[in-house]
Amino acid sequence: MASEHVLRIVRSDSPGDYILLNTSSNGSSPLDLKLLATEGSQPYLKTLKHSRISKYRAKSNHLTDAQWESLLRSILLQEPIQQRQEPEAEDAPTKDIELVATISSTNLTITLRKSISGIHQKLGELTLPASPNTDINVLDWCFTAIARADNLSSHSQSLERKLAEQTKVADKLRAQLEDLIQAKREHEDAILQKCAVLINEKKAKIRDQQRLLATAKPDPDTLKKVQSAARQQSARNKSPRASRHGKRKASAPSNSSSDEEDFESGVKAEEKDDEEGEGEKQADSEDVTPQHSDLDETEDELSEAGGEDIVPT
To answer: 124 - beta bridge partners?
Structure first.
């Protein structure tokens, strides 16, 4: 941070005139300053103490102590608020803040005020008494002002170069983004066209299979066998099965062996009849149940797909 600054402040009591204010460090604290001002004919001098800056605040000033300090540093020392680390410094109302000076016979008063739409709110003031015996080296003040102007010019040029570089990078990224969007659209269009071609080919195959199915003639012998097996199965399902033989009652002890033999032969005959009936059922079901052919699959696909071709857009 530079130890000396030169400010030009407009005079509110004499429109078009200005005073020059020189601020230089005068202690260990940031706002331990020596203030030396002149309107061109007489010097005015004041020593500012960092620990006593609150007494220069106006009664209508509602800023906190940290905000008031931040405001004075940004004006008198020309420090950007963003370069400081105080948490409350960023809330300091530097916007619409102006300095004006008035000169009386023995004092020069510098007023800090906030101006909004022609309405002025006084925030504080610094009074510099006249000091006729103080020497002013205006040439040194000119050197200080010129050095600061050079620094600001260099900083401005550096920011302009960075802005130009960032603008080029942004333009390049924007062009890449447009290329990616265009490539994405072309890829989507190609995929849609391929899908449309595949669907149309599938539908054409379905129509061919449908025409073959309509012109196909079944084998008469096979049709008769299937119809005959179906009638036999239907008749067998309608006719009641023979009831199982009941147990015979024992009539006399002398005939027990013959009765047992008759009972066993009856059970065996019944089991044989059951086995033959099951075998016939299985054979009938195999003859009646038609196999699921490719033509059936074609009919299913046709019912789902419809008859019109898909034209890619």
So the answer is: 57, 112
User: What tokens appear for 82 in the block?
Assistant: 């963003």
Contact 18, 9 (CB under 8 A): yes
* C-alpha closest to that of 5 among 43, 45, 40, 34: 34
Query: Hey, what's the torsion of the CAs at 33, 38, 42, 48, to 10 degrees?
Result: -20
Low-confidence winner among 237-246, 262-271, 299-308 (lowest mean pLDDT) = 299-308
Which tens digits make up the pLDDT trace of 23-76? Answer: 998 888 888 899 999 988 889 999 989 888 888 888 888 888 888 888 888 888
Sheet with 18-25, edge to edge strand ranges: 43-48, 33-38, 18-25, 4-11, 97-103, 107-116, 119-129
Dihedral of the alpha carbons of 77, 34, 143, 108, in degrees to the nearest 10: 90
Q: Is the dihedral of CA 161, 164, 170, 175 positive or negative?
A: negative
CA end-to-end span of the chain, whole Å? 68
Which residues contact residue 64 at a Cβ distance below 8 angstroms, ignoring those fewer than 6 apart? Answer: 88
**Which string of b and e fits 176-208 if b means at least 16 CB within 10 Å?**
eeeeeeeeeeeeeeeeeeeeeeeeeeebeebee
